[in-house]
From TrEMBL:
Protein's name in the database: Flagellar brake protein YcgR
Keyword Nucleotide-binding: yes
Oligomer and partners: Monomer. Interacts with the flagellar basal bodies.
Gene name of this polypeptide: ycgR
Functional description taken from the UniProt entry: Acts as a flagellar brake, regulating swimming and swarming in a bis-(3'-5') cyclic diguanylic acid (c-di-GMP)-dependent manner. Binds 1 c-di-GMP dimer per subunit. Increasing levels of c-di-GMP lead to decreased motility.
Location of the Type III secretion system flagellar brake protein YcgR PilZN domain: 16-122
Protein family (similarity comment): Belongs to the YcgR family.
Domain called PilZ: residue spans: 124-239
Gene3D superfamilies from the UniProt entry: Electron Transport, Fmn-binding Protein, Chain A, predicted glycosyltransferase like domains
Subcellular location: Bacterial flagellum basal body
Signal peptide: none
Keyword annotations: Bacterial flagellum, c-di-GMP, Cell projection, Cilium, Flagellum, Nucleotide-binding
Major site of localization recorded for this protein: other
Length: 253
């Protein structure tokens, strides 16, 4: 099932620790070159900002990342005793942290810089292979919810999908994000395949602050009692996404 990467320091992660400077720089550059969004967490994860890596400068031992959307947020980040970062690179969770973020100007816009970390945590412990869904043509999940006294079907964008579940964005925060809540009679609108019926159970929730200042809520949901026919449809769609991604990476049209 999709889930947020565990926060740094929550378990014994020494088998997953990367100490090689060359490998660490390679992982950070991979995040930058693939333009992956990463979570920036302060105050033990109670505040989360979405950012991206702008530059990895190994000569000066610096990473430069996007700043937060407001001056106040940037001040809280620079004053935080420790800032943790979590991102995904080729299905692997990449985690690192810093305690010395400095607000600078990079290419005529505010940014943070800090030292390249001496260690990085690299985790690959997913029960199912999952893949990000395309941003250009968002995939929708149709989720019936009770809003006040009426029934409403939310049309939510998928972040990623696996044979075990999905991650979705609930901008209105209309869903009950309590862990374990089950939503029945949901549908996924999969391109070239059509609508498939699923039952979703909320497994994790994270409120995000985007770089434009807007907020969003990311919910990781597990499929419950999925039929073999629906599982096969989801597998076909994942394979289709993988083929398209591979073709794009190799320049095949």
């Amino acid at each position: 099932m999709p889930s947020s990467p565990p926060s740094l320091g929550t378990e014994n992660q020494s088998p997953f620790q990367v100490d090689s400077r060359r490998e660490i720089i390679g992982l950070l550059r991979g995040l930058r070159e693939s333009k992956q969004l990463i979570s920036m967490l302060i105050n033990s994860g109670s505040e989360v900002f979405i950012t991206s890596i702008l530059e990895v400068d190994d000569t000066n031992n610096l990473i430069i990342i996007d700043s937060a959307p407001s001056q106040l947020a940037n001040q809280r980040i620079t004053e935080a005793p420790r800032v943790s970062f979590e991102g995904l690179l080729d299905k692997i969770s990449i985690q690192f942290s810093s305690d010395n973020l400095e607000l600078i100007t990079f290419e005529d816009r505010p940014a943070f810089q800090f030292s390249i970390p001496a260690t990085v945590i690299r985790l690959q412990r997913r029960e199912y292979y999952r893949i990000n869904t395309p941003l250009s043509t968002p995939i929708r999940a149709l989720v019936p919810v009770q809003v006040d006294t009426r029934q409403e079907t939310l049309k939510l964008s998928l972040v990623d999908i696996s044979c075990g579940g999905i991650a979705i964005l609930d901008e209105r925060k209309a869903m009950d994000s309590t862990i374990g809540v089950i939503y029945e009679h949901c549908k996924l609108d999969l391109p070239t395949i059509g609508l498939v019926d699923v039952v979703l159970q909320v497994r994790n929730s994270q409120d995000l602050i985007l770089l434009n200042g807007k907020t969003n809520r990311r919910l990781g949901c597990q499929f419950i009692n999925m039929s073999n026919n629906v599982l096969a449809s989801v597998q076909r769609y994942i394979m289709k996404l993988e083929r398209e991604r591979n073709a794009k990476m190799t320049g095949i049209r």
